Amino acid sequence: MTNSVFPDGFLWGGATAANQLEGAFKEGGKGLSVADAMPGGKARLDVLSSDTFDWTIDEDKYIYPNHRGIDHYHHFKEDIALFAKMGFKCYRFSIAWTRIFPKGDETTPNEAGLVFYEQVIDECVKHGIEPVITISHYEMPLHLAKEYGGWKNRELITFYERYAKVVLERFHSKVKYWMTFNEINSAFHFPALSQGMVKSTGAGDYHNVFQAWHNQFVASSKAVKIGHELNPELQIGCMIIYATTYSFDSNPVNQMATIEQNQEMNFFCADVQVRGEYPVYTKRIFDKYNVGELDIAEGELELLKDYPVDYIGFSYYMSSVVNITDEEAAKASGNLLAGLKNPFLKASEWGWQIDPVGLRIALNELYNRYEKPVFIVENGLGAIDNVDENFYVEDEYRIDYLREHIEAMADAIKDGVDIMGYTPWGCIDLVSASTGEMSKRYGFIYVDLDDEGNGTGKRYEKKSFNWYKDVIATNGSKLN
């Protein structure tokens, strides 16, 4: 479209994660993952943060919605056909590590798992949809979390390298775009999801968190090395959670605190993975959090330098406000991020502050800092959807949210930012990562299941389905 600012070949699509939609948690030779041990409900993160949680699955006490998901495992052809009907150019999904190596430390992969993902990939290709695969998305093998203590253990580098090698060798001829870890920096606030560590296994000690990060950085570079040796044209990115961060006022103290929060949360992991070296502010952070000396093996720093990622994938849902001079400042909810309420912004039903201009700022900050392509691989509005007698959802609120963020993307392109694509989160309703609920819905497609797993599981197109179809068909020029 000549009147579109979005470039030809822009990757419009949607995003999901294996542990949140596949279900079939014991089928096809799959082992248990950390996601399978996460109970559902609004107290999910509180349970995982408790001093006594040890990854034990207690079905008498909790429900586990991830065990069923939306049964995508048996409905992936139907679901991908719906994505194709919307006109998806790409589909971001993840491979469940436990479908390939059920315990994580085996030497021989599970062929049934590889066959399943081969079928998913082939279904995408059949419909002209480019697969975008996250190698590890909040679902590492439970065995590695319980028996090895999670990513603080250096042995996991070997296990991840073996896993990455298997999937890259198997699928590199059909899959160009990859990401190594989902929202790797989220561990700063919540190590359970991405590092497989809880307080009972050392999550409360920042030394463990930063050692786990180092091990993941090394593992990520090994995956980049494997991929580029298979095909130099493969694009292998990092993936971070990003919240544009504002100082509450012009007080220099708050301005400095904002810089520090940006360094710690938004930039540290990306600096290492994109630039290939630890940033100059590392010592300040290590001193502040009493990290101490990391166990860094010979040659690892050189590996990080030689094999940085090719692009920056990131999630953007909200912005954050920093104010350390006012202890009474009102708090806001967020995507694993603590922050303060911004009086200039509205919030979602879950208290996440809606800030499309913040996305434009984020795109400029990331691109100007790294000068590598950026890929918005998660963005969306979690909301309670009310269906009519035909299971139709008039989700104008979702359309408004996405429209405003796409307009912000267009403005960033005019600013000179190189944006690869846009994959709104939860393009089909799935289990929420933060609460384990189905009622917190993001999708263009309604799935008839409630928080207890009751319902038919049937899929229904929402109003936003046809709206997004038009957005893609016009390469982002038709937004109303």
UniProtKB/TrEMBL annotation:
PROSITE patterns: GLYCOSYL_HYDROL_F1_1, GLYCOSYL_HYDROL_F1_2. NCBIfam families: PRK09593.1. The active site is at E378. GO terms for biological process: carbohydrate catabolic process. Belongs to the glycosyl hydrolase 1 family. GO terms for molecular function: beta-glucosidase activity. PANTHER family: 6-PHOSPHO-BETA-GLUCOSIDASE ASCB-RELATED, GLYCOSYL HYDROLASE. Gene3D superfamilies: Glycosidases. The keyword Aminoacyl-tRNA synthetase does not apply. Keywords: Glycosidase, Hydrolase. InterPro entries: GH (IPR017853), GH_1_N_CS (IPR033132), Glyco_hydro_1 (IPR001360), Glyco_hydro_1_AS (IPR018120). This is 6-phospho-beta-glucosidase. One of its GO terms (cellular component) is cytosol. It comes from the Bacteria.
